[in-house]
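Morning!

As promised:
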Amino acid sequence: MCVTCGCSVGEVKIEGEQAHEHAHDHVHPDGSSHSHDHPHDHTHAHDHADGQAHPHSHDETPAHAHAPGVTPKRMVQIEQDILAKNNAYAQANRQSLAERGIFALNLVSSPGSGKTTLLCKTIALLGQQAVAVIEGDQQTSQDADRIRATGAQAIQINTGKGCHLDAHMVGHAMEQLKLEDESLMMIENVGNLVCPAAFDLGEAHKVVILSVTEGEDKPIKYPDMFRAASLMLLNKIDLLPHLNYDVDAAIGFARRVNPGIHVIQLSATSGEGMDEWLAFLRDGIAQASADRQQTVDGLKARIAQLEARLQQAQA
Amino acid sequence: MHEMSLAEGVLQLIEDAARKDHFAKVNTVWLEIGQLSGVEPEAMVFCFDAVTRDSVAQGARLEIITLPGTAWCMACAETVPMTEVFGECPQCGGYQLQVTGGTEMRVKELEVE
């Protein structure tokens, strides 16, 4: 178990997934298939598009032991990011989302900031807009149940002792969801202001939610998260009259850590500020659709060009 | 933060390399960890020892190379050293800083046999 945050592995459960009858299509370079008989702890080598293309040079710099029977020591250059595996999965998720024009957000905060309430309210206000939600919690499917009660589709990932979602779990959850093209996908990460900061899930943006019942100085206490996020939602502002909370100080601390962070003040309960948040979401969905359309148009144009050349060649 | 996950990431990279480069024992692992990466070296060593048990890297020595933190100060219009993510510019005292270095978490190289 992790000594700093208590996280552990091997207990991940994704709703709707049978207990490890993994028939997923991870293509191995040698064409072999693999069956998972382990409790989802991923020590198998998924050689995805990443990791393949890194040449290892063998510099036999240290001690050449030429004594018979002794294996010589040698150096192996790795030069790879520790999170390379996660980042490769995240990139695959990001590409799949882009191909389908889906705007994906990764919502992060401490427990109790009002993420699930905000999500439920947002889904209700978006009306006909298709929304899918991936819920991350250590235990229970309560949050996914709350989302499903709004009519949106949701899937729960239980991380067991894990303190964050990773891109591999999210990729599996995406397979379970029936995602609509040109829609919105929101990932509610495990309530934790530390660990989820480092794990790219393939989202367009990390959105950090800070409620005014927490301290103003959270951004400098947990700087990694506020640096990783591009938007901060200052939630529960309907409670401000009852609190001794300095909004400007909180925003100042967030900007100190991340000068470019965009801030929206809102309350899921009173509805104040929700328009700005909904506008952000609608812009994002429109942009994702437009980007997809551009790709499709580009491909069609290339097909037309190639068909014209083919006709010329055959003429 | 999550040093256990990171230690597992390191082990995965080592195991991949072991398959490609055919080695059975790792003596030393060099990591490059940026000063601003949020990784606690002590926790990293502890977790590494735990996850490498019964693996090709069991008993390997973990050497952590700390890389300095740097940031671009918009006010000074130059790169300045940083020791904390939320620190102030050592020259002008301002906070208009974009971190440019020191967030690395890399496996640099291995000594194997």
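Chain B has a mean pLDDT of 90.

Hope this helps with the figure draft.
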